[in-house]
């Protein structure tokens, strides 16, 4: 059940969320993340959304490339040349959006073997949420669960 106007509201609250992440009580927020993450994902079905897979690419680290290419029955070099490109940070990312492994029903063809970035996304139960402010703000406009967690943190911290 994705909140109806979450994207509009998230865009409107970017300054509030930034202030929260920069000035909120970091320890209190970190301690609250596991419960807020769990609550958000009780309410959000990623298969209804798929924005993350439609919007941008995870990094494919060497172990990811090795594992996925093996599962697909491809040589690592062939897998990389077919699906990946090097970004400005020197990381391998998918060549195109949406992700080539995203199916029409928002299922992932390589779900069990997906990259570690995909496994961890949207980082709502990790310190990444607080430490990487720009990434979290961007994620709050891609992932409704990130928006919900930030919304609850802001309430908890009394940030308006």
Give a structural overview.
By secondary structure, the protein is mostly helical. The protein folds into two domains: about 5-55 and about 120-155, no CATH class; about 60-120, no CATH class. It is about 60% helix and about 5% strand. Helix 3 crosses helix 11 and helix 6 (about 60-70) crosses helix 7 (about 75-85). It is elongated and about 55 Å long. The two termini are about 25 Å apart. About 30% of the residues are buried. The mean pLDDT is about 95.
Question: What secondary-structure arrangement, pairings included, does this model have?
Answer:
Blueprint: H1 6-12, H2 14-23, H3 26-43, H4 46-49, H5 51-55, H6 62-71, H7 76-83, E1 84-86, E2 92-94, H8 116-120, H9 128-131, H10 133-139, H11 144-157
Helix pairs in contact: 3-11, 6-7
Structural class: mainly alpha
Whole-number radius of gyration? 17 Å
What does the overall shape look like?
Answer: elongated
Estimated helix fraction: 55-70%
- Please tally the helical runs, counting DSSP H or I stretches of 4 or more residues: 11
- How would a crystallographer describe the biggest sheet? 2 strands, antiparallel
Uncertain segments are none
Strand order of the largest sheet: 1-2
What proportion of the residues form beta strands (DSSP E)?
under 5%
The N- and C-terminal alpha carbons lie at a distance of 25 Å
**Sequence of secondary-structure elements:** HHHHHHHEEHHHH
């Amino acid at each position: 059940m994705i909140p109806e106007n979450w994207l509009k509201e998230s865009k409107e609250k970017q300054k509030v969320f930034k202030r929260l992440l920069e000035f909120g009580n970091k320890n209190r927020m970190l301690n609250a993340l596991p419960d807020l993450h769990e609550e958000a994902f009780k309410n959000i079905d990623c298969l209804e959304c798929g924005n993350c897979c439609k919007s941008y690419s995870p990094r494919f680290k060497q172990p990811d490339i090795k594992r996925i290419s093996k599962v697909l029955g491809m040589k690592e070099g062939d897998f990389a040349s077919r699906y990946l490109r090097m970004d400005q940070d020197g990381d391998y990312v998918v060549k195109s959006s949406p992700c080539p492994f995203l199916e029409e029903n928002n299922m992932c063809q390589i779900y069990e073997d997906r990259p570690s970035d995909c496994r961890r996304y949207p980082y709502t139960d990790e310190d990444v949420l607080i430490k990487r402010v720009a990434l979290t703000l961007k994620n709050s406009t891609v992932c409704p669960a990130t928006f919900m967690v930030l919304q609850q943190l802001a309430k908890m911290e009394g940030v308006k």
